[in-house]
């Protein structure tokens, strides 16, 4: 696993966070772990980038947060997807599909 | 550097509550990561090190999160600017064209705005100009006049209980200003003793005129302007106390007004001010001291502009309510004062007694220049506004075309996940750079442009002194216009470019992708207003040129080629009527002897000077129609006037050498006058009088008829006019043109 695997395509981290939170409310570390698991270790999120992303999403009203106790009875901030966030995830997922297809086609055409 | 500024500012805005929460959250996160590692069998130390390697320390993480706030915005803006500059440098042709186009558009707007500002908007450079109000006299019929008699001024001043000040002033026009035996012309005004103190104009040297200087018999004092102090006295501080001679009368300079003070009439600059009570020394004919026409006593001579300053907190309505009765009383006294004087009649008295007072804001000074130029300036403003729109559409089109070549760049950026807003911002940043460049050059364009237009507005006969130097307000205006320009020309192409449809571009292959942005409907849409605006301007310009052509080709009724003009005013230094006549004869004689001069003459009013004499006329054996008061234009001319001017004599003869004092009084009339008063009959030998002009009202015999020559300006209908030999009624008040 190369080290720069944490370099996500710009703008996609938000989408991935939204996707993770779509399953259940989660705290920051939980999101990191879940992302790592789901990408089978390809994406490893740096804490800094994660919190920046979380703040950005929260400011945009796509997620909301509250303090809760974890399973290990530690206090952590849990993030939940808002209605707006759910919609955004849907549209971004569709857009992503189109872009990937397009980029793939460009790459194939020019080779 | 920017980073430092950013962090400094950030600490100001940092919210402690948010900070604490962030601290706790990140701490929990790292703790969980450590626990996870420990579960996998690491020791706590190893786990801590691993986590720090992966995520950085607590502080570093917090710093990253914090800086993702608005500081990053500043940083990307900086990047955008640098990138924008690089891009613009890469295509110098485009940049130069765009910047110059914008500079022209913005500059023209700024230049005209600085004039609009100077003429229409800017307040007088005095204390609290908003408290100043001009007095306006409204007659029974609703006619307004802003001229009052001296007795009225005195009455208002004496009976005023509420105002903080009443001032009176009278522009004297040009006077002969002699220092150390050398004479020069200067613009003068006569002011009341309250003038400077009420306006709050403090001298930068010496003192200003006060009410003490108004006392009759007080020493004659004068205050000069900063400008005159500069040009005539070279900033010499010993100017206070200097002896000067104004129109032959001795005065002492007592002070210098500050640089920004130009008087109360925008467009006029006053060089020297004297007390109203000294007027008789400078313009004895006008002042008519001691006669029934004395300007300081005659209630029927309305010659003063009056302004009042309200008390703090006093409203215009309150002031008018307080001042109204005072004014009515003044008018009643004036009407009574008419008895036994010239112009006394029941109707004149009732006119006076029934006139009312009106207040008008005086914060911008007198309105003469505003009235004259507000329409042309508004028109110019509209024209340059259109010019700017054209410039903007041009640049917008250029930007659109440029977007084609940057297609692949934009596509890649979008594909790599740059948000539309991000791309939009980058493109707008470039537009802002263009506009900033344009605005910078525009300041230069505006600088000489405003002076050029001010010079055009100012005719040779009456120079207009406008303070059009660019100040902060003008620069703010330029910045605002530039900003508007950015929005107009930058937003559409940027929005268009960022809406670039990636998948469609890809589908249509590389070549087709170039076309997606290319012939956009917006590009075509821009052409329509562009053509429309250009058409309007072209038609407007065409009409102007046509009017100029017409005026140029119109025959003014004299040959304007090879005519030289000059004027003198010996009356100003006390030449009497008889001396004046003698002087002019000598001048004519000497000029005639100059070999290169084919003919010489003079007239009181030079043709097309913009003004002329106008008077009632009584024509013998002519009965005016009901309600007609026959009036004609009059000019006083020297011998051989028509031959010199090249105006055709249709009947009879020119004014001749023999028409002088003592010989039979004659006049030459123009076709329009012949037509009006005599129809088809021969006017030669008929007689008419001009009542009220000088004491001698004996009739003049018509000895010639000349073709119509334009009088006041090229556009005017030629009025019925008579030309009277100057030497038959010499008048030192007139300033003849040779």
Please give a structural write-up.
The complex is a heterodimer of chains A (111) and B (738). Helices cover 58% and strands 14% of the residues of chain A. By secondary structure, chain A is an alpha+beta fold. Chain A has a three-stranded antiparallel β-sheet with strand order 1-3-2. Mean pLDDT of chain A is 82; it is low at 1-6. By secondary structure, chain B is of the alpha+beta class. Helices cover 49% and strands 14% of the residues of chain B. In chain B, strands 12, 13, 14, 15, 16, 17, 18 and 19 form an eight-stranded mixed β-sheet that branches. A six-stranded mixed beta barrel of chain B has the order 3-4-9-6-8-7. In chain B, strand 7 and strand 8 (249-256) form a beta hairpin. In chain B, helix 2 (16-39) crosses helix 3, helix 5 (71-90) crosses helix 16 and helix 6 crosses helix 16. The longest helix of chain B is centred in the middle third of the chain and has 38 residues, at 368-405.
Give a brief description.
The complex is a heterodimer of chains A (111) and B (738). Helices cover 58% and strands 14% of the residues of chain A. Chain A is of the alpha+beta class.
Termini gap of chain A: 26 Å
Number of strands of chain B: 19
Shape of chain A: globular
Biggest sheet character of chain B: 8 strands, mixed
Share of residues in strands of chain A:
5-15%
Helix content of chain A: 55-70%
- Helix count of chain A equals 4
Low-confidence stretches of chain B: 508-518
Q: Tell me the radius of gyration of chain B.
A: 38 Å
Topology, element by element:
The complex is a heterodimer of chains A (111) and B (738).
Chain A: H1 12-23, E1 26-27, H2 28-38, H3 47-59, E2 63-69, E3 75-81, H4 83-110
Helix pairs in contact in A: 1-4
Chain B: H1 2-13, H2 16-39, H3 44-55, H4 58-67, H5 71-90, H6 92-121, E1 132-138, E2 144-145, H7 150-159, E3 165-179, E4 182-191, H8 195-199, E5 205-206, E6 221-224, H9 226-233, E7 243-246, E8 249-256, E9 272-275, H10 279-282, H11 284-287, E10 305-309, H12 316-337, H13 346-353, E11 356-361, H14 368-405, H15 407-415, H16 420-457, H17 472-498, H18 502-507, H19 509-518, H20 521-553, H21 577-593, E12 613-616, E13 618-619, E14 631-637, H22 641-645, E15 649-652, E16 666-670, H23 671-678, E17 687-689, E18 700-706, E19 721-725
């Amino acid at each position: 696993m190369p080290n720069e695997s944490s370099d996500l395509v710009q703008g996609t981290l938000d989408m991935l966070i939204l996707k993770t939170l779509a399953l259940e409310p989660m705290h920051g570390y939980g999101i990191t772990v879940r992302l790592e698991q789901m990408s089978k270790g390809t994406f490893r999120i740096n804490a800094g980038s994660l919190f920046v992303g979380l703040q950005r999403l929260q400011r945009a009203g796509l997620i909301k947060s509250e303090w809760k106790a974890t399973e290990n009875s530690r206090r952590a901030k849990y993030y939940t997807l808002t209605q707006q966030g759910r919609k955004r995830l849907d549209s971004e997922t569709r857009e992503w599909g189109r872009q990937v297809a397009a980029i793939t086609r460009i790459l194939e055409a020019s080779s | 550097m920017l980073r430092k500024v950013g962090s400094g500012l950030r600490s100001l805005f940092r919210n402690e509550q948010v900070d604490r929460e962030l601290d706790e959250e990140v701490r929990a996160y790292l703790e969980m990561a450590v626990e996870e590692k420990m579960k996998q069998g690491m020791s706590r130390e190893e786990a801590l090190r691993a986590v720090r390697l992966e995520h950085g320390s607590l502080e570093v993480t917090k710093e990253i999160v914090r800086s993702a706030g608005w500081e990053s915005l500043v940083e990307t803006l900086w990047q955008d600017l640098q990138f924008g500059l690089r891009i613009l440098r890469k295509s110098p042709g485009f940049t130069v064209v765009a910047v110059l186009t914008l500079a022209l558009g913005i500059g023209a707007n700024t230049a005209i705005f600085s004039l609009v500002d100077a003429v229409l908007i800017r307040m007088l450079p005095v204390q609290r100009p908003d408290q100043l109000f001009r007095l306006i006299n409204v007659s029974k019929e609703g006619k307004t006049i802003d001229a009052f008699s001296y007795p009225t001024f005195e009455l208002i001043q004496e009976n005023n209980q509420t105002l903080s000040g009443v001032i009176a002033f009278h522009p004297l026009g040009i006077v002969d200003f002699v220092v150390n035996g050398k004479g020069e012309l200067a613009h003068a005004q006569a002011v009341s003793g309250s003038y400077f103190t009420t306006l709050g104009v403090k001298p930068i040297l010496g003192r200003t005129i006060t009410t003490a200087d108004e006392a009759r018999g007080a020493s004659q004092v004068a205050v000069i302007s900063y400008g005159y102090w500069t040009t005539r006295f070279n900033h010499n501080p010993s100017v206070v106390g200097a002896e000067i001679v104004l129109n032959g009368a001795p005065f002492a300079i007592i002070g210098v007004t500050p640089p920004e003070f130009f008087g109360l009439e925008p467009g006029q600059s006053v060089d020297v001010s004297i007390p109203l009570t000294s007027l008789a020394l400078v313009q004895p004919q006008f002042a008519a001291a001691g006669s029934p026409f004395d300007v300081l006593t005659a209630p029927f001579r309305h010659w003063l502009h009056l302004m009042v300053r309200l008390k703090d907190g006093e409203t215009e309505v309150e002031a008018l309510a307080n001042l109204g009765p005072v004014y009515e009383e003044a008018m009643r006294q004036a009407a009574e004062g008419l008895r036994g004087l010239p112009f006394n009649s029941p109707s004149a008295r009732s006119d006076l007694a029934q006139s009312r007072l009106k207040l008008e804001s005086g914060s911008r000074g007198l309105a003469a220049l505003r009235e004259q130029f507000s329409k042309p300036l508004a028109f110019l403003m509209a024209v340059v506004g259109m010019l700017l729109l054209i410039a903007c559409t041009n640049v917008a089109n250029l930007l659109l075309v440029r977007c084609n070549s940057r297609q692949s760049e934009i596509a890649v950026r979008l594909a790599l996940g740059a948000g539309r807003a991000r791309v939009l911002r980058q493109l707008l940043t470039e537009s802002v750079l263009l506009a900033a460049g344009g605005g910078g050059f525009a300041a230069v364009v505006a600088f000489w442009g405003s002076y050029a237009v001010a010079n055009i507005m100012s005719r040779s006969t009456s120079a207009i002194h406008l303070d059009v130097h660019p100040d902060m307000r003008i620069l703010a205006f330029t910045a605002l216009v530039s900003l508007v320009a950015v929005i107009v020309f930058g937003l559409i192409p940027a929005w268009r470019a960022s809406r670039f449809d990636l998948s469609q571009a890809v589908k249509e292959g590389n070549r087709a992708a170039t076309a997606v942005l290319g012939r956009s409907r917006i590009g075509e849409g821009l052409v329509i207003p562009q053509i429309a605006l250009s058409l309007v301007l072209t038609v407007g310009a065409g009409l102007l040129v046509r009017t100029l052509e017409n005026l140029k080709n119109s025959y003014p009724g004299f040959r304007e080629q090879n005519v030289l003009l000059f004027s003198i005013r010996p009356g100003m230094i006390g030449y009497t009527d008889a001396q004046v006549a003698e002087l002019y004869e000598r001048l004519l004689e000497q000029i005639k002897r100059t070999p290169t001069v084919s003919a010489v003459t003079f007239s009181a009013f030079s043709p097309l000077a913009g003004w002329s004499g106008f008077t009632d006329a009584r024509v013998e054996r002519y009965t005016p129609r009901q309600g007609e008061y026959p009036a004609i234009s009059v000019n006083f001319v020297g011998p051989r006037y028509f031959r010199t001017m090249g105006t055709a004599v249709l009947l009879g003869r020119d004014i001749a050498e023999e028409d002088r004092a003592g010989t039979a009084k004659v006049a030459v009339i123009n076709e329009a006058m012949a037509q009006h008063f005599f129809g088809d009959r021969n006017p030669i030998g008929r007689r008419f009088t001009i009542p009220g002009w000088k004491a001698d009202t004996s009739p003049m015999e018509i000895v010639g008829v000349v073709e119509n020559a334009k009088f006041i300006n090229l556009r005017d209908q030629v009025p019925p006019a008579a030309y009277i030999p100057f030497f038959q009624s010499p008048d030192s008040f007139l300033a003849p043109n040779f």
